[in-house]
Design a protein that fits this description.
elongated, Small secreted protein, disordered N terminus, 0% strand, single chain, signal, mainly alpha
């Protein structure tokens, strides 16, 4: 089971949602250049979001030696992933009042979105804890239930929440100048569906 791709597949659409942010509408007034303080604040916000994605790439691997090691390693990955989401939410809360008009609303939207991601991951961790490693059929059923729980991440509209950034001219201009925000404006491949779970060999019970 590719837990990393499954648990954060919802984040793949973020750059797509912002890929056209740098194109101003014809006739729109040119926003005034952002201050250093505004660029730094936007950069911190972006850094917290991209930091979550980076941490998902560093999750411990799944140990497929037997059913018990699969369960234990998946549980460890989910603990780490949900912890990273929680850190992102707390970090966003710790940014304090934004020096940019409308940015506080965007920040609150991000907090809500990553709170939803955290909740899905914590619920998946609870499901993983119930997997029966002693019986092959029950083990497969438990893994299927876990996969279904993780698919709930596809219902989280993070792309829509990132659209609020595009709709906030001062914040968008500051983000365009912040190095930490560059991943938001780079075109990425379309979101992939979660990979089907890979089961350990049947002759290696836990």
């Amino acid at each position: 089971m590719n837990i990393r791709r499954t648990s954060v597949a919802v984040l793949a659409a973020i750059p797509l949602a912002l890929s056209a942010c740098g194109t101003p509408q014809a006739g729109a007034p040119e926003p005034k250049a952002p201050t250093t303080e505004q660029v730094q604040w936007a950069g911190k916000m972006c850094g917290l979001v991209t930091g979550f994605s980076q941490k998902q790439k560093q999750l411990p691997p799944v140990d497929k030696t037997n059913t018990q090691t699969v369960k234990d390693s998946i549980s460890a990955r989910l603990d780490a992933a949900s912890g990273a989401a929680d850190e992102t939410v707390n970090g966003l809360k710790g940014l304090g009042p934004a020096p940019i008009n409308g940015a506080d609303e965007v920040n609150q939207s991000f907090q809500q979105g990553f709170g939803e991601v955290r909740d899905v991951l914590k619920q998946a961790r609870a499901v993983a804890g119930q997997i029966d490693v002693r019986d092959k059929q029950k083990f497969n059923e438990g893994v299927a239930a876990l996969q279904n729980q993780l698919k709930k991440s596809n219902q989280i509209d993070l792309a829509g929440k990132f659209g609020k950034l595009e709709q906030t001219p001062e914040l968008k201009r500051a983000a365009e100048r912040a190095p930490e925000c560059k991943p938001f404006f780079q075109q990425k491949p379309q979101q992939q569906q979660p990979a089907p779970p890979q089961q350990p060999p049947a002759d290696k019970p836990g």
